[in-house]
Design a protein that fits this description.
With 42 residues, this protein is an all-alpha fold. Helix content is 67%, strand content 0%.
Length: 42
Amino acid sequence: MKAMLVAFVAVAAISVGSNLILMQIGFSSQDRYAGPDVRLDD
């Protein structure tokens, strides 16, 4: 049971950390696939 809880915490930390890193370097899906005619963050 302890190993399962550690795994859940690890998955959560990895997913939140990777999301923050990818948003900082501009590699989000909206940045990658939005064309110049799309208004984002209005």
